[in-house]
């Protein structure tokens, strides 16, 4: 009585082994090409989007009563899409009048930042921002700390802010 596997079972084992290897290779290729799109960008791009988001946040959140219109105008040059439309409306209706009438001044600084997701034409950056606010009614500086996700879109050679959302705390 022979314990050798029949040629048919050996062939089946070889086919199953080859299919397993092919599936593993395909999974690896898909992981590094589709699932890991951040592999398509280098550290310089990550640094660029992080700096663009940080400088943009400072521009969006910093203004003085006597220069608010210029400050807002300079900030709008860093924006695109629906967020540009929203920011234009919000600053026209709320920020500029409040800054002028109540002498509101703000100064923002970025305490920490880091890319969350970076692809060829889009990026998301997480910022930890401190904003100091004064007004005629409250001349003593009030500091607010906020976490913000900044969405960026590439337009030509430039990265522009297309979304700017405070992170909601879960508590």
TrEMBL record:
Keywords from the UniProt entry: Membrane
UniProt-annotated location(s): Membrane
Gene Ontology CC: membrane
Coiled-coil intervals, chain numbering: none
Entries under InterPro entries matching the protein: TAT_signal
Main location: membrane
Name the UniProt record assigns to this protein: Twin-arginine translocation pathway signal
Organism: Rhodococcus opacus (Nocardia opaca)
């Amino acid at each position: 009585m022979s314990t050798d596997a029949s040629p048919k079972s050996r062939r089946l084992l070889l086919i199953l082994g080859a299919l397993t290897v092919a599936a593993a290779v395909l999974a690896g290729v898909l992981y590094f090409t589709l699932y890991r799109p951040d592999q398509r960008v280098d550290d310089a791009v990550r640094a660029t989007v992080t700096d663009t988001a940080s400088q943009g946040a400072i521009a969006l959140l910093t203004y003085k009563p006597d220069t608010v219109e210029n400050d807002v105008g300079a900030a709008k040059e860093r924006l695109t899409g629906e967020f540009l439309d929203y920011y234009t409306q919000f600053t026209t209706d709320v920020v500029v009048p409040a800054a002028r009438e109540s002498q509101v001044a703000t100064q923002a600084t970025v305490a920490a930042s880091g890319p969350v997701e970076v692809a060829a034409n889009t990026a998301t950056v997480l910022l930890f921002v401190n904003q100091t606010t004064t007004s005629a009614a409250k001349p003593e500086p009030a500091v607010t700390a906020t976490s913000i996700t900044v969405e960026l879109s590439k337009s030509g050679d430039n990265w522009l802010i297309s979304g700017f959302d405070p992170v909601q705390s879960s508590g």
